[in-house]
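sorry for the late reply, my laptop died twice this morning and i had to redo everyting from scratch. anyway the thing you sent over, i finally got around to it. pasting the sequence first so we're on the same page, its 170 residues, then the predicted structure underneath. double check i copied it right bc i was rushing
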Amino acid sequence: MADANLTPLVGVFGGTDCMDKKKPYVLPRFAAYDPKNAKSGTDKLNPTPTLLICDDNPNIRYLLRSFVETRTPFEVCGEAIHGIDAIEKAKQLQPDLILLDLSMPVMTGAEAAVILKREVPRMKIILFTLHMDDVSKAVGRAIGVDLMLSKSDSISKLADHLHALLTPEN
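ok and here's the structure:
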């Protein structure tokens, strides 16, 4: 009587007996998940480069976020308020680039850049400061940051630099 109840289901699934001993069920194969390369919400074939903004001044963070989100094809994945916060968020969010203010409380951008270069070497770093001088430039070169920028420069220059650092060469 149990076989009579199963007969309609066999036709629905288009097979004969799903308990066929000759052909064992094989699990479908999926691509291996690699958490180091994972980014939430990005398409792996055409990922949008991401930025982390780190400045102790909330007005500067707001200005930078607004500019990047409205005037560039890049995405701001987070904000940090000092160097230690930047290191933690960079490890968590894995941005393609970090904008680091040189002078911040708790930990400076220069101190954070040294640690970030060692722990997240693929990430690009722009160190920016209100007062660009020879000492600031020397610090940036010694650390190995990708670019030193002055906050007094035109913000449109920032877009050009972001494109140069984040757009792959064709």
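Confidence is low (pLDDT under 50) at residues 6-18, 27-43.
thats about all i looked at so far, will dig more tmrw
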